[in-house]
Design a protein that fits this description.
Length: 230
Amino acid sequence: MRGSTREDFEALPDQVRDQVVDASADPLPQESPSRHRSATVARATKETDIQVTFDIDGTGVVDVDTGVPFFDHMLDAFGRHGLFDLAVKAVGDIDVDAHHTVEDVGIVMGQALAQAIGEKRGIVRFSHSFLCMDEALVMAAVDFSGRGQLHYDVDLPIEMVGTFDTTLAKEFFIALATNAGITLHVRSFSGENSHHILEAAFKAVGRSICQATRINPRIDGVVPSTKGAL
Ligand SMILES: [Mn+2]
C-alpha cells in the first residue's frame, strides 16, 4: 500500500479536506458543554476581602483587580489562555505586602474551581502543557485527583518583578492546588527573565486546567477513576 500524497489530499472532497485540516490544527476535544460550569465564592478575613467568579467553560473574558499590578497581569494570562471567564475582586492589606492578598486569592480561586467542576463527571482529568515565552520554557501538569498538592521547581533569576515578590507565585499555586483538590506540577526548563518565566507558568497552568476540565464524550457522565469518585 502506498502512502498518502499531496495529490491524494487534493483529490478529497472539500468537506473531508476541511475535517483533515481541523483535526491536525486542534487536538482538544471539540464538544462544548451545554451548560457553563461556574461558581462564585466570597471570603472575608481581617486581612483580605475577596470575591471570585470562575467559569470553566468561558472564552477568556477576564476582569481582575487585586491592587497588585503584576499579579493582575498573571491572572489575566491564566484566565485568557485557560479560556476561563474569570472575575477577581480583592481588597487586601497590600500596605503590609502582597502576601496575604496573593495567597488568599489563590484560596478563593481554588474553592471556586472546586465548586465549578463539582463531581468531575466525564472530564478528561489529566493534562499538561509545555509553554514557552521567548527564552522561557515552563511545564505544568495537572490531575483533578481530589488530593490537593503542589510540586514546584521554578528557577527565577531575580526576586522582584516590578513591586511583585516572585516567591509569592509559589504561595498562589499552593493555595490554588490545595483548595481546588488538584495535583499540580510546575517546572521551568529554561528562562532568564523572571517576568517571562512566571508568565509562561501562569499560562501553562491555565491551559492545563482548561484541557483537563474538558468533557470527554467517550466517558459520558462517568467519573474517571477506578474508585468511582475523585
Ligand atoms: Mn507580560
